[in-house]
Design brief:
Elements lengths: L9 E7 L3 E6 L4 E5 H6 L4 H12 L17 E7 L3 E6 L7 E3 H6 L23
Antiparallel strand pairs: 1-2, 2-3, 4-5, 5-6
């Protein structure tokens, strides 16, 4: 893994619990990640496993938390050292640690942010 350079680190983070995470990067760019988008692309081991399983079997049974019927929100967020942020979700998911490099990789403003992501469809996010 390549160490995060100063330009890849955020200058400012803003979490709106019912909307998403806005990152103002050191290089002057800004990225916005909707809450549902962050949850779907969580880097946690269980979320990665679910995306891989869904890529193999589109009829995969989703966890009960994926269909609670309630709007998904962030219940909190905390910095993890100097390299990441952990977002806590209203469905109870709290194990995803989003490194600055990973957030750059999944930036919705990138031309193809989902390319090479297991379980990602050609139209975007995995349907979880």
């Amino acid at each position: 893994m390549t160490p995060t350079t100063r330009e890849q680190r955020p200058k400012h983070l803003d979490v709106k619990k019912d909307q998403g995470l806005t990152v103002h990067w050191q290089d002057g760019t800004t990225s916005f990640y909707p809450i549902a988008y962050l949850r779907k692309l969580s880097p946690s081991a269980d979320a990665k496993l679910l995306r891989e399983e869904m890529a193999r079997n589109p009829l995969t049974v989703l966890p009960a938390s994926a269909s609670s019927g309630q709007p998904l929100t962030a219940t909190g967020a905390e910095l993890v050292g100097n390299y990441a942020i952990r977002v806590l979700f209203s469905d109870g998911h709290d194990t995803g640690i989003y490194s600055w490099d990973y957030l750059r990789e999944i930036d919705p403003n990138r031309a193809e942010p989902y390319k090479d992501k297991p379980g990602a469809s050609k139209h975007g996010l995995p349907d979880i």
